[in-house]
Amino acid sequence: MAANYAIEANEAIAGIVRWRPALSNLYEVAFQGMENISVLHCSEINFPGLQLSFGRHLGTKKFALENCQLPEEVTITWREDYRHSVRRFHENWFALFYDRNNDKFISATNDTDARKRYKTAIVTIQDLRRSLYRVGRLYLIDMLPTKIPDLSLGWANDAVMEYQLSYKISDLSLGWANDAVMEYQLSYKISDWKWEWYV
Amino acid sequence: MAINFSNNYIANLISAGADAMTNLYEVEFYPPTSVSEAVRNQLKIRTKSFTPPSPSQKKYDVHWKTVSIPKLAPKIELDRSLEFEFRIDAHYDVLMAILEWQSISSVASLGYAANSPESFGKIIVRALATPITNIDSEGATADGIADENALVWQFEDVAVENVNISQYSAEDANPGSVTCKFIYGKYIDPQGALF
Fold this sequence. Notes:
The complex is a heterodimer of chains A (199) and B (195). Chain A is of the alpha+beta class. Chain A contains four helices and twelve strands; from the N terminus they run H-E-H-E-E-E-E-H-E-E-H-E-E-E-E-E. Chain A has a single domain (21-48, 61-198), classed as Hcp1-like (Pnp Oxidase, Chain A), CATH 2.30.110.20. Mean pLDDT of chain A is 80; it is low at 179-199. Chain B is of the alpha+beta class. Chain B has three helices and ten strands. Chain B has helices spanning 2-15, 37-41, 93-102, and strands at 25-30, 56-64, 67-77, 81-87, 106-107, 112-113, 121-128, 150-165, 177-183, 187-188. In chain B, the strands form three sheets. In chain B, strands 1, 4, 7, 8, 9 and 10 form a six-stranded antiparallel β-sheet that branches. Chain B has a two-stranded antiparallel sheet with strand order 2-3. The A-B interface holds A 9, 12-13, 16-17, 19, 21, 23, 25-26, 128 and B 62, 64-67, 69, 71, 74-75.
């Protein structure tokens, strides 16, 4: 007779068959100002998680929190279209910060102009529970560009043009919309650093 | 009692009707509108065969100690291409029609290749999905198969990938044929038509 804590193979198989893993390819990215292009052409997105560093306290020998590394950069891989829409979008975005013709940085003179510099991306992730429409949404708030895409052309290259670009983000929020009855949202603000639960 | 069961099965077999037949199908080609109209009409011809798309869902294994369980991965594996073999006529009209369609996306001898949506046409395949009960039945005559009595595959955004003319040989006297490869984008099959 097996001990209580032992799981036999057939029980484990039944459990594994019912287990639903998270799936990394079922997502869309809608980028404020270019939703139509971003949904189709953000082929990959990488977002670092929160990181905590601990060190042993010299006196107590216990682990003490030394540092909290907040996520502040997101990397998106873009697939360029034949109009070079991604490049043109980023050039227009950069023009809000820097006047290349006159070699001048540009200051926003009012709130409206200042807000135009920030873009928000919404990453929609399917959770595949009975419905295509049960999703989680990650809001990458107030993104700032750090680079105009590199241009690489080659006669021997027949691959689709892709750019891997990084953006600074000032804030993020993550929400899971399960259905109308049971909905909760988890978000945290980097600025004031606290976790907030909405039930 | 066993005999009665057998009789029931035989009755079920008889009442199930005729089998579906593999030769009762039609293929229609709709080249893009930039292809001349006379050419477009010449492409409504019967092809030698049709292989329906056969998508499969990718699998992956989940291991636990000594066992592994296959699970379905969120990826559909489907080669979105079609291949048809045509008999070509003595005037080579069918061949030239397909070459005109292909020339929108590529003319190899001129070094021209593009991926413009203007090269996209449409292919519709209908397989008879009703029994032939008499000489007036659909499928028994030369009339086209109606959608309501057919399994329908409709391929859109179809472009010509390759045209392959059968080998010329002085040592035989076979009718000429051309094998044509198409790629497609969106498609509707009998399963998708359920939704």
